[in-house]
Structures are given as C-alpha cells and as structure tokens.
Amino acid sequence: MKLLEYQGKELFEKYGIPVPTRVLVDNPAQELDLKFPVVLKSQVPSGERRKKGGIVIVKEKKDLLDSLSNIFQKNIDGFLPEKVLVEEKIDSIKEWYLSLSYDTDCRAPVVAVSPVGGTGIDSARVFELYWKGDHWELPQLQGSPRLLKVAQALLDLFLQENALLAEINPLFELPASPAGGQDGSFIAGDAKVILDDNVVNPSDRPYLDLQGDIAILASGGGASLLNLDILMHHGGNPANYVEYSGNPPASVVEELTVKVLSRPGLKGCWVVGGTANFTDIYETLLGFVQGLRKVSPKPTYPIVIRRDGPRQKEAFAMLKEVAEKEGYNFHLYGPETAMSESARIMVRLAYSS
Amino acid sequence: MSILVDINTKVLIQGITGKEGSRAAREMIAYGTKVLAGVTPGKGGQTTEDGVPVFNSVAEALSQFPEVNTALVVVPAPFVLAAATESIEAEIPLIDILTEKVPVAAVAKMIAAAKAKRVTLVGPSSVGIISPGRAKIGSIGSSEMVHAIFTPGSIGVISKSGGMTAEISRILSEASLGQSTVVGIGGDLLIGADFLDIARLFEKDEDTKAVVIFGEVGGTYEEQLAAAMESGTITKPVVALIAGQFSEKLPQDTVLGHAGAIVSKGRGSAASKIAALKKAGALIANTPEDIPTLLRTIL
What we know:
The structure holds 2 protein chains of 2 kinds.
Chain A: H1 5-14, E1 22-25, E2 38-42, E3 55-58, H2 64-72, E4 84-88, E5 94-103, E6 108-114, E7 125-128, E8 130-131, E9 136-137, H3 145-160, E10 163-173, E11 186-188, E12 192-195, H4 197-200, E13 207-209, E14 214-219, H5 221-233, E15 240-244, H6 250-261, E16 268-275, H7 281-294, E17 303-308, H8 312-326, E18 330-333, H9 339-352
Parallel strand pairs in A: 14-15, 14-16, 16-17, 17-18
Antiparallel strand pairs in A: 1-4, 2-3, 2-4, 5-6, 5-10, 6-7, 8-9, 10-11, 10-12, 13-15
Chain B: E1 10-14, H1 19-31, E2 34-39, E3 54-55, H2 58-64, E4 70-73, H3 80-89, E5 94-97, H4 104-117, E6 120-122, E7 128-131, E8 135-138, H5 146-149, E9 152-159, H6 162-174, E10 179-184, H7 195-204, E11 210-216, H8 221-231, E12 238-243, H9 270-279, E13 283-285, H10 290-298
Parallel strand pairs in B: 1-2, 1-4, 2-3, 4-5, 5-6, 9-10, 9-11, 11-12, 12-13
Antiparallel strand pairs in B: 7-8, 7-10
Helix pairs in contact in B: 3-4, 8-9
C-alpha cells in the first residue's frame, strides 16, 4: 500500500524525522497561518506531480486562494486531489536523496544515499545492511552526524511500520547556523512510503481495470501474467487484471466473477489457468457459475474456459449441464488445448460477431 | 539423479495438523516420501490420521528423529518466522516454506539467519519440490494426476509460479521430456534460493541436461542467472519463459501477480530479463508450448 505524502510525513514526525511547517487543507478557502512563500502539493498517488503541475510555489498570501482553487481542480494521471498539503518553503544549501528498501541482489534491506536529490535511486550509492542476529545495522556512512540520525530514524520507521520503501527525495540540508558553527539540520521535503500488503492488507487480491472488452478470470500469480501477455499477443483487449491463487473457496471466486463481469461493453470472458497442483477445479468453477447467475443483464457473449487440475472432469460435467439448462455460451477446454490456443479461440469468438 | 529431494529425504512438517499441512503430508506419503514427524506447538504427543507423530517443537522432534534432513513449513503467515527460525537454528539442511503472504521483513531475517547457518531455504510461497519417481515435498503434484504430469527424466525446472510448475511439467512429459527435479521457488519480493542457487545445483547434477525457468517481471533473480551464464558459472542450456510483458504498459510501482512483481524504474522488467537471458545464450519461449520445441534443438 502506497501512502500519500502527508501520511508519510505523519509517520516521519512519529519517528523524529524533521518535516516542514505545514497545513493539510481539504478546501481552497481554508484559513491557514503560515509564513510565505509556501508550496502547494497535490496529494495524489503519482510520481510525476512536479512535472504535471501538482507542486506550485505561492509567494504572497493574496495569490493563495486562486492557486489553491487551481490545484484542487488539476487532474494528475487520472487523480483529483481530495487534500492539498501547504508547506512553508525551505531554503536549502543542498538536496539529498535517502531511502530504505529491500534489494533482490543481496536479499536484504539496503540504504541508498545521494548528495544529489531529485534524481532518485538510480544515481545513489547503495549499501547493504548487516544482520546482527537480532537487529539490522546500518553500514558506516560518510556524512554528518545529523544525516546519520535521519537515516537511523528512517530505518526504524522502515522496519517497525513494515515498509517496503521509505524514501525522502529531496532531503533538504539547511545552511550551518552562524553562531554554533555546526553543520546544518535536515528537513524531509517529500515522503514516499510503501507498506507491505502482506501485513496491512493480507486478504487483498490484485485488481486492475484495463479498459478492454474481454473479461479475464485467471488463476495463479504467474500464469495470470503470462496469459495476459498471450491474449494481447493474439489481439485481445483485456478488460481487467485479476488473479486468484491457492485453493480459493467458491465464495471468493463468485465475488470476483460478479466484479469482473459487471463491467459494461464486454465481448467475451476467458476463464483460464494452467494445470493446477492442488486447486479444486470443481469448487472454483462452481463459484464461477454462482457468480455468473448474479450478473445482469445475463451474459450472452462467449465464455471460454480452459482449466485442468483436481476434479476437472466433474467440473466440466457440471458446466455442460448448466450451459444446457440455463443457456450460457460456454466453450470448454482441458489440458489437450494449450492455454495460448484458448486465447486465440477467445479472441476469434469475441470479435467475430 | 536429482537435486534437493530424493529417496533419502526424511521430512519434518511444521504445521502438520492444519488443513494444508495434513493434506500435504497425506499426498507426500502417498507418493512415497518419508514423513517422519510433525510439529504443532501444543499438540505434542498426538499422532496424525496418517500415523505421523506430532511434537511441540523442532528440537523435541529431532531428539527422537535425528535423521530428519528436510523441514516443510506450512504454518500461517504470522508464525512462519518463529517456525523457520527453529529449523534454521537446528541446522536442518533443507527448509521449504509453502506459506504465502509472509511479511517481507520476516523473510529478510530468515534469509540472513539461513545464510549464517549455511542451510538452504526455499520459498516462501514455494509450491514444493518434486524429483519425479523419487520423492516430493509440499503441495506440488496432486495425488490423482501426479504420475501423469511429472515423469522422471533429465530436464530441471525452476519456477516462481506454483501453477506453472505443473503446466510446464505436463507439457514436457507429453513431449517425452521427463524431469530430474522441479522446484517452486516462489514469486515473493525476497526469496531464499533463487534461480541461480538452484541452477548451480542442476549444473552439478549429472542427470540434468538442460534447465527450464519460469520467471516474471520484478526483482533481479533472472538477471543474476543471466550474469552467471555469461561468466561461465552455468554452462548447461537454459530455456526461459518470462511473464509480464504486458505490464510494461502500466504505471510504475504497480504490484501484479506475485508480490515480487513490482514494476519499478525499468529495473526488473520482463523486457530487461528477456534481453539479459538472450544475450547470455538462453533460448526464450513465448508460450509454454514452445519449451519442448526449443529443448529439441539443443538436446
């Protein structure tokens, strides 16, 4: 789960990472007591806010209402902000990049640091953390003690909040204070935090609207990705991405079927999976039929089903009976028909009428 | 021969009294795998329907069955770290984790601990491992069809996807290409043994003549295998099927399929994996049915 910037900054405050003085507003007319200039930041889940006008500097108070009204109406990558973060502008001498994430090369947490903010992890130096038997330890990093303090706080957040990514980009370095002669403080300019869905949303199933006209109920994390590749290769336009893996009960498949087939303008439905190791095919397809009966108007488009695995024969006998009695346009295939062949059949049937 | 599991495999199942654990135990025993003991804290002293004695802890089980050389972890996700830690501490040489949706933070700790103890960790989200005709561990190969799908032979299979282990093996078997060992490594962001770790074992296995991998968008495990092929560490022929090319059209950071399939900043894309593997000399399959055809050109 990807947090919005303001949610990330609330976590930063909890772990002692300095953030700018700020107010979160949900309407343009909201009163706020901040020093100008301020920065308006659209709270949308897009990585390209700056490029697309989602971050605006306002120099004087008289311009605030207009600018806020504009940004609330600005659509960025399909998102309109419900909230806008207004922050006092920071004058920095340097912008850093700092992040914690998991790396698949070393299969451990890594810290990435760059004295050039704004560019991202690609130009940063990446260091592996060490497992000390009961905790992860940061490597020796070059830099001021205050920077290391921010890195340690970010690590604490990363581990305790079950994050997959905790990123500060830019991390502002302030000018040294003239009196003390110390190096400057650091303030987090942005916050990007992705939490581990295995912890925060363990029952979530991935679903994406892909705008096409062939509904897909694909089984298996890997096979579902492969089957989308193959359907598109044959010229099909997938309506959605969804996946049910493991051995789902009929009720889960029923719910997914209703969700996927409730989209208007469908020309076909493809129920597909490889040879299952242990998924009960009868149970799965029973759930599909239960869902199908709830879809209105009743689907008349071709439904291509390619499944194989435990109780597949029983399942197909049941489907044949349902098709006959209730008048569905089923096309049933077992392991003798390749998944890719069933994709070709699906595309032909969907677009021939 | 085979890798990881064979006729000498002696298994302890952590979570044997649960629904998945008891089903896996029954099917493993039916296949001829030696399941010596089970562990479920609080249920020590019981015996399962299949006659396997249950213990409260791994240490307790090992005191009675010191010959155990493989642990299968099938406990619910929140308990996987504690369960795997017990087996790692006991230095059981092979630990296969079937549980899905294990927190990544827990997986990172298990991997570090397994490295320190030099034990092989497979998973999480592993469907299991089968050496056809010899033994199997996990949910791979349901009992009614297992002998038709998985047949003995000389092709090693490594797959991030559990479902695709059966689909690919069935297609291979229909083409009279049997398998030495089929390994479900899981599709999580962080995994224990990866493509390269398993390919190294196949490289040393006399009976394995070629390796088939099923990879996916996300992570860098496919790229690491490609690098090892380039450097000459892996010399046996590799046929690769990589899923997720369509997802290149989606916004960055979109999580698809398995948890490890995060589309991010060009790194780990299906296209970059295919390019790296092709450059290293792997043959690229576009569909599962291409695999036997490609294998025939090199065997």
